[in-house]
Amino acid sequence: MSKSMRVSVVSALAAALMGVVGHCAAQDVYPSKPIRVLQPIPPGSTTDNLVRALGRELQVPLGQPWVVENRPGASMTIGAQACAKAAPDGYTLCSLASDHLTLLPLLFASLPYDPEKDFKPVALMFYNVDGLVASMGLAAHSVNELKAFAQANPGKLNFGTLGPGTTTDLFREWIARDWGAQITPIPYKGGPQITTALMANEVHITRFGLGSLGGQIKSGLVKVLAVGSSQRSKMLPSVPTFAEAGTGFPIKVWWGLFAPAGTPDAIVNRLNAEIVRIYRDPKFLEQMESQYLEPAAGPIDAFAATIKADKERAAEVIKRFGVLKQ
User: Fold this and answer.
1) Are residues 116 and 264 in the same domain?
2) Could you report the per-residue pLDDT of 62-71, keeping only the tens digit for each?
3) Does the model's pTM come out above 0.90?
C-alpha cells in the first residue's frame, strides 16, 4: 500500500471514529428532543395552565419545548397509567395529584398503575388553595345555611366531583357524614366541566381549586362559601376558612411532576434543579399566587417525605370513614 493510500485510510478511519464519538455524545446530551408531559385532566384547568407556563420557562435552560398531552378520565387514572407505561428515558413526564398516590390506592382494589413502583418524584409544584363553591342559584349563602339545606332536603343537594376516590368526592363524604345528610355526587372529567355545570346551576356545590374559578368568582357567576387555607385569602378576605366555618378536612391537595420509574437520577436531578430555580423568580411566584396556588417546589427528598406523610394521613381518614375498597 502506498503512503498516500495509507494516509487516506487513516483519515477515513479517524473521520468514522469521530462520527461515532459525536453520535454517542449527542445521545448523552439531555434533552436532545421535545419532552412530552402527560396531564390526567382536560386542558384549561389551573394545573394544566401552570404546567404549560412551567414548560415555557424551562424551554430556554433545557433547549427543548414541552409538549403537553391531556389524558383525562377514569378518576384521573388514564393519564397516570400512560405515564407509568412510558419509557424511562426522561422524554415522558407527568403531572399527578396527591389523589393518585395517597387516596386512590386506599379506595380501589385494583389500579392500572402501581403507586409505589411506577413513578419517580421530580418536583412538588404547588398546593391548591381550594374552596367550597356554590352555584348562584343555590339559596344557601354560608356554610351553616348549606348545612341546614342539606339536612332538610335529603339527596336534593348535589356535589360536582372528579370521580370516586378523588379528594373532591372524599370531601363530599366527609361533610355528608359530619352533617348527617345525603349529598349526591355528580362526576366530571375536570375543573372546567364542573365550572360550566356550576354556572348552569346543574351542580349546586363543589370543593375545588379556586384558580379554576378565578374569572367566575370575580364576575359573580359563582360564590365561595369557605376557603381551604390556614388563613383567609388576600383575594377573598371576607370569606371564612374551613376552620372558621366549622368544616375542617385533614387532606390538602397538591400536584407534582413525576417521571416513570427507572428514569436516570441525573435527568431527574437536572429537571428538579431547573424547576427550583424558576420558583425563585418573584414574578413567577406572583403569577401562581394570583391563580390561588401555593408554590411548593423544593428538593426531591422533601417531596418524597411529603408523599409518605400524606399516605399515612389519608389512611387515617379512610379508616375513620370505614370506606371499603371498590
Assistant:
1) yes
2) 999 999 999 9
3) no
